[in-house]
Amino acid sequence: MTRLRIQHTTWPRRALVLTDTPRPDCPDCDGDGGTAHDYGDYETGEYAGTDWERCPCWDETRRWTLLPLPRRPRWLRRQDPDVDPWAESPF
Asked: Domain of life of the organism in this record (predicted)?
């Protein structure tokens, strides 16, 4: 059974990619793709971070580029993101 999905990526270049997903009925990770382990600081015992242990049911490196997407023109990237450049007609 394939568990593929289409995803938008921006690195190393904008594209639509086909990626693998965790097995939804996996008894080890319950479909999350891994298990999170919180850990604390040795001296104080306070929360210091979270480690992620990847489940073998999922290979996050399996991805195939379906469609490279073009970059936005420079004049659209420099404008204020709240301003719609197509809101006013030039005619």
From this structure: Bacteria
CB 21 within 8 A of CB 6: no
CA distance linking residue 70 with residue 29, whole number of Å: 37
- The residues, ordered by sequence, that sit 6+ positions from 21 with a Cβ below 8 Å of its Cβ are 3, 4, 5, 33, 58
Where is pLDDT greater, at 3 or 34? 34
What is the per-residue pLDDT for 50? 93
The set of residues, in sequence order, having a beta carbon less than 8 Å from that of 76 and lying 6+ positions away, is 85
Residue 59 structure tokens: 């290979």
61: pLDDT strictly greater than 80: yes
